[in-house]
Amino acid sequence: MISQLSWKIGGQQGEGVESTDRIFSTALNRLGYYLYGYRHFSSRIKGGHTNNKIRISTKPIRAISDDLDILVAFDQESIDLNSAELRKGGVIVADAKFNPTIPDGIDARLFAVPITKMAEELGTSLMKNMVASGASWALLGLPLEVFNKAVEEEFGRKGPAIVEKNIEAVKRGAEFVLEQAGGPLDEFKLGEADGEQKLFMIGNEAIGLGSIAAGCRLMSAYPITPASEIMEYLIKKLPKFGGTVVQTEDEIAAVTMAIGANYAGVRTMTASAGPGLSLMMEAIGLAGMTETPLVIVNTQRGGPSTGLPTKQEQSDLNAMVYGTHGEIPKVVIAPASIEDCFYDMIEAFNVSEQYQVPVIVMTDLQLSLGKQSCDPFDYSKVQISRGKLVTDAPALEGPELFKRYELTEDGISPRILPGEKGGLHHVTGVEHDEVGRPSENAMNRQRMMDKRLNKLNDLSIRDAIRVDAPNETPDLLIIGMGSTGGTIDAARTMLGQDGVTSNHITIRQIHPFPTAALTPYLEKAKKVVVIENNATAQLAGQIKMYAGYADKIESLLKYDGNPFLPLEVYKASKELS
Amino acid sequence: MATFKEFRNNVKPNWCPGCGDFSIQAAIQRAAANVGLEPEQLAVISGIGCSGRISGYINAYGLHGIHGRALPIAQGVKLANRELTVIASGGDGDGFAIGMGHTVHAIRRNLNITYIVMDNQIYGLTKGQTSPRSAEGFKTKSTPEGSIESTLSPLEIAMSAGATFVAQSFSSDLKGLTSLIEQGIKHEGFSLINVFSPCVTFNKINTYDWFKENIVSLEQFPDYDPSNRVAAMNRIMETNGMLTGLIYQNTTRKSYEDMISGFKPEGLAKQELAITEEQFNQLVAEFK
Fold first, then answer.
1. ipTM of the complex
2. Domain at A61, CATH number
3. Quick one: A156 and A47 in the same domain?
4. Where is the Thiamine pyrophosphate enzyme TPP-binding domain (chain B) (predicted)?
5. Could you tell me which residue, A25 or B169, shows the higher pLDDT?
6. What was the pLDDT predicted at B120?
7. What is the number of CB-based contacts under 8 A between chain A and chain B?
């Protein structure tokens, strides 16, 4: 019995790799296994090698694996590109049609299944992915009926005849490979899963779901990889809650429309990635200056410019923290798990209204698109707070206006929505007085700047830093953000086996920087390693600037477009320890 | 019922004496009163430039945003609370240069808002540079030898983008302009009203007298039918865009708000934020 294994399917883009992966993993999720997915894809629709990898485990996992147990290949290219990843004695299930061969030096077992031929016998080569997935499922010795149920759900809309054919394709693939192998492979026999009901989703879906729970009813956005799934999810769901998604002409319209809608009282978000974020910068300043709530999701991908649009990177941190001219209060939150994606959206909307500031939720491609198991979300934890929103202002006398920018002790002023009789005031990106009229008065300017910039002094979001610190004075304190946490933990297990003690901190409140919370851990660590997917050590820069300890901080950086692997983190950390 | 005086506030505009924008401000205030609005039911969203200051000069809700983006902000306001009357306003640079992309798409989208462009054919606040509305050969600080770009025709662009309400006016014609704004507000969809608003400081060519000489009023054509799209386009081209009056109106196309699936007549901002546990469980069930 094994506790985990890794499965990968590869082929040409548009060949059914995605749907096969979806059915395969849905079935595994139903059986209660923990899953962690990784999509390798290119910025094109048809053609080009693509592969999806799933790590399957009986225990929680949050990282891709270093190696691979089963590779399902639709073409020789998939074998050539991915077989080096196979562990010794791993399995390749490939289409007999292209006479698959195992590259030199690779120790693997090959099952050549007449995938295309069987599919064509059933009427269409489109079903070859079902033959292939049926074959690989059968090798695991898992119950076929669970798999067939997932097939039924995938194709149910197309009618019973299509479902039946696909199930038949699965069966033929399974039967063929079992005969060749002499039954399910013992080395792939997974232990029983814990049976707990889990959710299985990508970060972008959790963001969409979290937004609806948070009361978000409008989204204005422009399509971009890897953010589009958020708008695609919300346009399916928001009409049921009275809202909608507007696909705007560009990201400037997306963010300014969101500002207008937030000003008028509806929780509204936009989402984008690097290029779109760059276009939004001026408007983010408007939200900061006019103290209008705003929530932006930035799903980071490889930059700069068009960069690596379908690859992993965490290089927008400085842009999010420092972007927009002038000085405004702004919050940057980095979810580090699917659960965070959900709960952080609720917090982002609350913080944006309580503090009347723009909030950027930063994910990265792997967190946004990697499909993962996660714990069920807790409805009772969904709390909506709108801060100092006034609904019963007394009538105004004569030319009097509502003090929308009243100077208060905490810097946060009462907010009222257009339509309220007692609330007339003006809003402008020009420096303004307490009722929003433009003012160049020097004293007013200073007071208003101080008011805005001091608003966030006491802000601390849920788990501003997430601490796993079993050691009082560890050899290593490893710090990361976003999707890298699971990989870091996997590396720490290996470090522990070598006798290297380590603590792990995930920074979730990127800005304002949680200096006070972090400092004691930096103080006690012998060495600090900051792990991030960028070339210029942006997170480490923030730590050094705000908390210091530059002499013991080292960086582990990766910016080749791929997520860190546990072994990489282990080896580099060990060297630094 | 509010009178136009209730739409006045005590802020003194920073426009030059004689600027066409004063009359446009007055026309908006009169039109708002004439259609029966109270100040809190009106939101004026403006861009940047001399004209952009208008949201601060009207006693109503107002948002003075960033250059070229009055329209997306205004559309956001309307989507959030469709019970509000939303007027977007700005200059020709704001709407036809930096904001042209938004203008075309706001027209296509057809939300029920009114867009008033204060068109002075020049950049005034930055002290006299060429605008997309400047005539060819027009000499400014940025075109010392005269503009060598062709003049943009907002009316033709609006028509070709599928506008449902296209009007043009002259700031001196307070009565006509007020009436057009009232019609624009009542129109169920996006209404574009381009208003010639002379810049007395930097534009010595397109003066009050020049407009009086060159404008062609639709009043001269008693048989003119503003529902005829082809005739409207022809008339715009025949008059080289100098036409004033209600040029085109399509009353059959529904507004964007009326076409959104599940969108209620009640302002979204007034609706419940929280979802029920049952709704929550339904959403979550998809991921099991």
1. 0.98
2. 3.40.920.10
3. yes
4. 48-195
5. B169
6. 97
7. 196
